[in-house]
Amino acid sequence: MTRIKLNVDGVRYDDDVEPRTLLVQHLRDRIGKVGTVVGCDTSNCGACTVLLDGVSVKSCSVLAVQADGKAVTTIEGLAEPGGALHPVQRAFHERHALQCGYCTPGMIMASVSLLADNPDPTDAEIREGLEGNLCRCTGYQNIVRAVHDAAAAMADGGGAAPPQVPAQAAPEQREVAV
Amino acid sequence: MTITSQAPAAEVGAARKRKEDARLITGQTMWTENIVVPGMLHMAILRSPLGHARISRIDTAPALREPNVVAAFSGRDVADVQGSLPCAWPVTAELVMPAHPPLAVDEVCHTGEAVAVVVARDRASAVDALAAIEIDYEPLPVVLDLEAALADGADLVHTDQTTNKAYTWIFDSAQAGTGGAVDEAASGAEVVIRRRYRQQRLIPAFMEPRSVVVDATGDQVTVWSATQIPHVLRFLLAVGTGTPEHRVRVVAPDVGGGFGGKLQVTPEEMITYLASKRAGRPVKYTETRSDSLLSAHHGRDMIQDIELSARRDGTVLGLNVRLTANMGAYLGLVGPGVPILGAFMYNAIYKFPAYRFECTGVFTNTTFTDAYRGAGRPEATYAIERIMDELAVEVGLDPLEVRRRNWIGHEEFPFTTVAGLTYDSGNYEAATDRAKQLLGYDELRREQAARRASGDPVQLGIGVSTYTEMCGLAPSRVLGSLRYGAGGWESASIRVLPTGKIEVVTGSSPHGQGHETAWSQIVADQLGVAFEDVEVLHGDTRTAYKGMDTYGSRSLAVGGFALVNACKKVIDKAKPVAAHLLECDVSDVEFADGAFRVRGTPDGGRSLADCALAVFAAHDLPDGVEPTLDADDVYDPVNFSFPHGTHLCAVEVDTETGRVTIRAYVAVDDVGRVVNPMIVEGQVHGGVAQGVAQALFEEAVYDADGNLLTGTFVDYTPPSAADLPDIVSDRTETPAPDHPLGTKGVGEAGTIASTPAVVNAVVDALRPYGVDDVPMPCTPERVWQAIRNGGGQS
């Protein structure tokens, strides 16, 4: 077991984890962040996408120990503490960019990251930017519309652009038990 | 509450944003995998690595010595109690139905078949301990090819059967009295076109992997499952396990897509039940994506031999369809019936005078097949729309013109087809005109001609699909005549709470379709209450105890009918109460715009909430008035629902690389009146995406030993955003005359329509190269090969 410290959606968690534990398993099974879901086992679908220190990662492709000392933002931490939705969340709702909603947490987090990199993307840039996130319901068209809307809203100051990255938990010296 | 004469705005027809979204966009969703029950254990399943083998030895005892393992068992341990998974659609009396034990006992018949399980404290321990199970297989011959499977002396898929043929089912219009004989039609025809089309095997690939939690520890067995069919599951679990039905509760929580793939009573659900019984603890099983692709049922996989007879002027005289359908190793819940759902659709929107359909279901050592979005109808639509294009080429007509010469005119409805169905309404001319206009059809034809003339290495193709389909499954009597095991009705209940808020219970079971929103809109209009004051409950047999669930584009077409009926009953029950409050005779009460009023008196009405409070108190009700406004309805449809439309697709094909790019896609659908145009458009987008995926991207492939080569999303490739085009979606509106809302089904339409539109476009682009077919999916390699081979069938 290895001791890790994570800041997840603004709360610090210290846990002993098996080295093989994936970040997504740790988030779901230990921390209770079940808003982040698993859709495949080959890192193709992107349903488990979260932000790690503000950058999108597929949390099935990161070991929990690799996230030690970092800040994780999940879909559950995206809205403002008062409950105001992030512009991307709002746009997904307004544009009917989800149906069953299973891909949605990952799709929203990937879109947030995409807009942080490119605040005014073209259609093609959105489609390529979200290539790592599969949706089986929507045909993506309304997702593309939603990302455009969110981009416009964020440009208009309709919400803080990239999510605030909470202060990092201090990494500490450790030995990794294998 | 005093009612003003201001009429509330109509909800039906408005693009209401969805109620469901709030939890889905914030990560508050209740997926089955999120459910944790006190004392719950986790199960892992050992699956066969071989396509066909005898299990000569299996020992699960070593797994029990692994840490955290509570139970381990194989099919042999539960052989006496596990029963056989149900097939509810034995399409013929002679159907061959091999036993389908949830856990294989002596013989495995496809790769991925479950053979043993481990139940442990945590999932990782369960998965780890699978490696300790000792199992010896004796390989048996693997049967994969449909035609070889039917040959004399073929190896057998099941060693305890004498044949690989499941059934042959025939419809002949001459025998049915709905048309002539196809042989006579062909013998007198100026043109006879024969084609073989291959419906490749697909995988529904819903995004939420299947998951099930069973708590069989108490008096009542509770099952949470990511299923489309909680009510069917409850019934069959009770029948299959001998648990009294009233002691079985099934909950479908939030379900992450289905597309027919969760229209199944699965081995995994039954095995988890067995595990909970044996362990005496609640047990959860959640599949991996690899497990899902390997063992959740597949779809399509048919060979279509089509013969179309016509006159030189393009008038079709007869259609003969011979279908060979791959059942896989077992018969799924409705698997044998899937091709039969297509049987009534090969004649499509056309006035064919003679039609014959013969389907042979065949077993192979592959994962069993069953419903996938459209279930039989996309296959039928593909074949007829492909061969109508061949007819157009043969007789030298534009593909739309050859269709026009055969289709049912809008003034001819209701129209009884050669397959015996009565289409209620439609306007193929209007949808086609609109689609042509939106695509710029004539202009694109001119551009195509120019590119052909100049020898442009990037050729333009225009694909046509004028489809209809039968959905709104289904009239119970028709289902009975087709030997289906259940009815096709749907239920709705309205509970009027004392404060005037409304609870709606639907027996349909949504998994992305937006019922909570659409049902609220309907009820708001019917009862004159606010959209926000309606709560829609579903998917839990404790609250929604009666239902036939969601598939076959049926929820609104059938369940919406029941909902409107139930609302009318509520109003009827409220009228005597309102009359009492208004101090008038009940015959003088009218209900309009959300208010009960004395006829001819515009002001001073009473709301449903007033009546609800009055029956809640019940202090002062007239004699004989029951103190409730609640009402139920169960509706059995009298006919199917027949949406239709015209989809046009323009593709650019790079003849040097074989790459296909969709340049424009227009979908004009007529689904009758719509409750929520935003949701309808979303259904069309998603449906088209899945149809395009069949045309261009997806195929489940087995190797010669029966190993699934497309067992992950690396190899089975649902399209990403970068693979799909924007589509232009529009509607024409021909109301369903028998439906109180005028609506038709929409869930499958896009998938049914789009596959032939895309492939017709690809083939159309390549006509100058002598190409008259490209097998699906039309990958760059296949397109390139077709060009090099001048790949034609004619």
TrEMBL record, chain A:
Functional pathway: Alkaloid degradation; nicotine degradation
Residue ranges constituting the 2Fe-2S ferredoxin-type domain according to the UniProt record: 2-78
Pfam families, alphabetized: Fer2, Fer2_2
Segments for region (Disordered): 155-178
Keyword Acyltransferase tagged: no
GO molecular function: 2 iron, 2 sulfur cluster binding; metal ion binding; oxidoreductase activity
Keywords linked to the UniProt accession: 2Fe-2S, Iron, Iron-sulfur, Metal-binding, Oxidoreductase
Keyword Iron listed: yes
PANTHER family according to UniProt: OXIDOREDUCTASE WITH IRON-SULFUR SUBUNIT (PTHR44379:SF5)
Full protein name: Carbon-monoxide dehydrogenase small subunit
Species, as recorded: Rugosimonospora africana
Primary gene name: coxS
TrEMBL record, chain B:
Superkingdom of the source species: Bacteria
Record key words, sorted: Molybdenum, Oxidoreductase
Keyword Oxidoreductase annotated: yes
Keyword Lipid metabolism: no
SMART domains, A to Z: Ald_Xan_dh_C
Alphabetized InterPro entries for the sequence: Ald_Oxase/Xan_DH_a/b, Ald_Oxase/Xan_DH_a/b_sf, Ald_Oxase/xanthine_DH-like, AldOxase/xan_DH_MoCoBD1, AldOxase/xan_DH_MoCoBD2, AldOxase/xan_DH_Mopterin-bd_sf
Transmembrane segments: none
Listed Gene3D superfamilies: Aldehyde oxidase/xanthine dehydrogenase, a/b hammerhead, Aldehyde oxidase/xanthine dehydrogenase, molybdopterin binding domain
UniProt-recorded Gene Ontology molecular function terms: iron ion binding; oxidoreductase activity
One Pfam match: MoCoBD_1
SUPFAM superfamilies registered for this protein in UniProt: CO dehydrogenase molybdoprotein N-domain-like, Molybdenum cofactor-binding domain
Domain Aldehyde oxidase/xanthine dehydrogenase a/b hammerhead: 26-141
UniProt xrefs under PANTHER family: ALDEHYDE OXIDASE 1-RELATED (PTHR11908:SF132), XANTHINE DEHYDROGENASE (PTHR11908)
Name the UniProt record assigns to this protein: Carbon-monoxide dehydrogenase large subunit
